[in-house]
Amino acid sequence: MNLLYSLKSETIREYSLKKKSARPRNIRERNSKILLDLYQAHQIVSVTQIAKFAQVSRTTVLNINEFLLNNQIILPEGKGESTTEGGKKPKIYRFNPDYGYVISCFIDLGDLYLSAFNMNIQSQFERVIPIAHSISIENIIEEIRSFLFLCEQKFDQRLPIAIVIALHGAVDTERGVCLRAIHFPSWGFESPIKDIAIKTLGKDIPIYLDSWIHYNVHAEKAMGGAQGVNSLMIINAGKYGVTSGSIIQNRLYSGEHYLAGKIGHIIVAPGDQNVCECGGYGCLESMTSIERLLDRVKGQKSIFPDSLLFRDDYQITFSDIVYAFSQDDELANKLIEEISGWFALAITNVNLILDPKLIIFEGDYAQLGEKFLEMIQSKIVNLSRLGLKESPLIILSECSQKKTLIGEAVFAKEQHFDALIHGR
User: Fold this and answer.
1) Which of 16, 31, 235, 293 lies deepest, with the highest CB count within 10 Å?
2) Starting at the edge strand that comes first in sequence, how are the strands of the sheet with 170-172 ordered?
3) Are 395 and 88 contacting, i.e. CB atoms less than 8 angstroms apart?
4) What is the pLDDT of residues 156-205, one digit of tens each?
5) Which residues are CB-contacts of 157 (< 8 A; sequence separation ≥ 6)?
6) pLDDT tens, 284-313?
7) Residue 260 contacts residue 246 (beta carbons within 8 Å)
C-alpha cells in the first residue's frame, strides 16, 4: 500500500491549492489531518521528516504533535539516527495502533461476522455465528452485545471507538434504519436497527449502519485497488443479484432516498417477460442471474454436443461455466458474450450519470477473469457515441466478508479522527 503516494498526489495537492484562501481554523484542521495520515503511513517518523512530507514548519508539527501525544494517538519512540553532518539525534514518534478499536459486524446471508480491529485495521479478535433467515434483529443485536462484552474483557474494559453494522438491504444512514432487508423478511420495513442497538447495548458508543457494498468501497479506496482514486464504483454481481456502491469526489454517494447503487434494477431489456424479484421486467439483475444463465444451458446439447458443459451427466454449475469459458468453449463463450452485453449496457448508462474514474468488478462473475472484462469494455466502446477518448478503467477484485469488515473499520476510524480534529 503506497499511502504516501496517495497522500502526496491527493491530500497535499488539494491542501496546497486551498491553503491561501482557507481560514486559520481550517488550515489547522487540514494540517492535523495530513500529519495524522502521514503518521499512519510511516508508523515511525521524526518531526523533520513529517514537516518535509507535509510541507509545513517544524513549529506546526510540534504544536500538532502535542495534541496527538496528549490523546495518545502517537507515542514517543526514543531517538533516531543523526544526519551525515552529525548533530543531535532527532526525537521520533510512532502511531499508536492500540489507541482504540472498532467492532465491525456484518449480517451476511447465513452468518453473522464479528471482528475487533485496532487502529492499523488489523483484526485482533473475531467470531462467526451461523444465523437463519428467520432470525430477528433483536437476536442479532444480542449476539453483538455478547461480543462487545468479550471485547471489553480483552481490551482492559475499554469501549470501542465505534460499532459498525453492515447488512444486505437499503439503509437510511441518518436514522440508522434498514428500509428493507429482502433476505430477512421478519424485519419488515423501516426496521430501527440503530435505536434497538442503542437500547440493547446500553453504552455511549457511536453506532453506524449501512449497506455492506458501501463498506467494500471504503476498503478498496483505503487499502485496495482504488488508493488515490477520488471517484470510483464497485459492482458486485453473482448468485445474490447485482448491486453497486460509489464514491464520487471523495464522498460516498447514497442518493436522496438511499437507493443509489441499486443498478441491478436498471431496465436493460424492456421487452423481456421474466419477472425480477423486484416485480419488474428486464432488470439487469434478472437478465444476468446465474439461475437464468444455467437455464440457458438446457436444450443446447443438440446444438453444441461437444461442449465441455456436457462432458458428464451431472447437474451443471456456475463453476462449470467458468471453467468452460476459460477453455474457450464455444457454448460458454456464447452465453457469457450475451451476459457481458447486459453489463456493458448498464455500465454505459451509469458512466453517463456518475462518470467514475475506476470501476471495480467483484462477486461470482469476477471469476470469469480478464477475458470477461475485455468483452464488456469492447461493448462499452461500441455503445458510446459521444466520441470521448476517456472511459473508466475496469478492474477485478475479490469479494469477501473480510473486505466488508475492513471497510467498516476504515470508515469508523475516519469518522472518529475527523470528529476529534474538528473538535480541537
Assistant:
1) 235
2) 170-172, 177-180, 189-191
3) no
4) 888 999 999 999 989 999 999 999 888 898 999 999 999 999 999 999 99
5) none
6) 999 999 999 999 998 899 999 999 999 887
7) yes
Q: How far apart are CA 56 and CA 238, in angstroms?
A: 48
- Residue 371 has what pLDDT? 97
The owner of cell 494517538 is 73
What the block records as the C-alpha cell of 90 is 532527532
User: What average pLDDT is seen over the chain?
Assistant: 90
Q: Where are the beta strands (DSSP E) in 212-351?
A: 232-238, 241-248, 251-253
> Cell for 178?
434498514
Q: Which three cell numbers stand for residue 157?
A: 474494559
Q: Cβ(66)–Cβ(361) under 8 Å?
A: no
> What are the Cα distances from residue 38, in Å, to 28, 401, 424?
15, 28, 19
Number of H helices, E strands in the chain: 14, 16
* Cα distances (angstroms) measured from residue 329 to each of 73, 296, 310, 392: 56, 15, 11, 29
Largest CA distance in the chain: 84
- What is the mean pLDDT of the segment spanning 91-101? 93
78 pLDDT band (50/70/90 cuts)?
confident
Mean pLDDT of the 47-51 span: 90
CA–CA gap between residue 93 and residue 79 (Å, rounded): 9
Nearest CA-CA partner of 397 in 235, 214, 245, 284: 235
d(CA 295, CA 283): 17
- Dist. CA 334–CA 343, nearest whole Å: 15
pLDDT at 387: 59
CA-angle at 382, arms to 380 and 385, nearest 5°: 100
